[in-house]
Design goal:
The chain is of the alpha/beta class. It has 14 helices and 18 strands. Strand 5, helix 6 (about 175-190) and strand 6 (about 195) form a beta-alpha-beta unit. The radius of gyration is 24 Å and the shape is globular. The protein binds 6-O-phosphono-beta-D-glucopyranose. 6-O-phosphono-beta-D-glucopyranose (BG6) binds near residues 169, 199 and 256.
Amino acid sequence: MLDTAEMPAISAPPIGRPGDPCVMVIFGVAGDLTRRKLIPALYNLAKAHLLSREFAVVGIARTPMSTDDFRKKISEDIKQFAGTQVDPDLWEWFVRRMHYLPGDFRDKKIYQQLKDTLQKVDKDHSTHGNYFFYLATAPEFFGTIIENLGEAGLLGQDNQHWRRIIIEKPFGHDLESARALNKQLLKVAEEKQVYRIDHYLGKETVQNILAFRFANGIFEPVWNRRYIDHVEISVAETVGVEKRGSYYDTAGALRDMVPNHMMQLISLTSMEPPISFQADAVRDEQAKILHAIQPMSAEEVLRRTVRGQYGEGIVEGQRVPAYREEEGVPPDSRTETFVAIKLLIDNWRWADVPFYLRTGKRLAARSTQVMIQFRRAPFVLFRDTPVENLMPNQLVLHIQPEEGISLRFAAKVPGPVMRLGPVDMNFAYADYFGQQPNTGYERLLHDCMIGDPTLFQRADMVEAGWCVVSPILDVWKALPPRNFPNYAAGTWGPKEADDLLERDGRRWRNFEK
Ligand code: BG6
């Protein structure tokens, strides 16, 4: 039955064109990502008129379920995860486009069934033979799915229709496996068909780093080693490993956060201006800066990295267990839940400017920030306020949960004597733009539907990220930690992380709630 019904209009006309007609195939559709992020994001796109009315989803998972059951399930889930009131007419339109195919990704027969289903869905929804495959499965299935999609001829594209693959993280578990996965992908598809997702690039505040740097004239001239003392990038979480203990224990904080999310933050903060906003112009600059990160020798790894694991403690007023007591985690686990690293970038803009990275679970507050600390004023002008005591200017890009930008500078404290104190100039997104329901996946899914890979990782970028962490993985593997757990849940991580900065005469910017 042909179903390309007009989408009920419930909001203002779109900014941007709707995605192309297409079918999105979700492998692992029964998982958390689909209900929490993907379906709400698609619904938000429909609401914003950014989804083609010739659109459909085919979900695949092992759970035995009919399309009707699937529709019922997501209709329940959406109430919890939409983040906004769900419009019944629009939802009805939306859910009619959802289809389900039960099956095991390792079973070759399922790909033939998928092919048949796609032909039918394509006809019913007039999706022009355009398909994109979203791999939302455990990483051990990536290779099998890719190979089978290729064998089934589902990745062949021509001028009449396109085929794309979105692949979730973790992309490999070290450099070698990331290279092998890239090789496997590029055997069955061209690079331009591959969209390696990093959900950090879906965050407005992360995209805004580019806007802030390259749409304003006043920051770029001081964005270099002459004016910047150091940069600190913190991704602090208060959550533990939640229900993902068995995955997390094989990954650890370094693999889980650094080659991907933290490399995005570092590259956007430090890259050169691209020659245009074309996907490859932006990604060339990102890749270039990642290649310029100084490789660490084994001795440097020992000096410039810190790892930690949380013991029990108190987070947001609640007593929480130690990492080793979490579900799925062995009681003698040596996996790190915290990492701090000092990186250097070998180029003219950044030579000798340290980039301090820190991320961890069960820390004292949830906050992701990029802090740029400028050099101190060079000369003691105010006699009773020695320059050393003055807080240097700090520009903080607040990524989450606060979303905004603040600039710290010194001001005269009112009164008859000349006294100085630090003050903040603050910009908060919510004050200007209000709160839009956003899962962080809307932009990325829409970009894939219009064929814009700017915010996706290219093969060379993923490999460059792994190159940075490889020497750390090697040294840490050779020298297992002996002092775990070494920080209490609800604190700012192990003392060695403070020492890392203190040795350079600096301190972490701590942000209590
Ligand atoms: C994921 C990691 O990629 O990112 C998680 O696997 C982490 O361990 C999460 O909690 C953080 O994402 P966000 O968007 O909450 O900062």
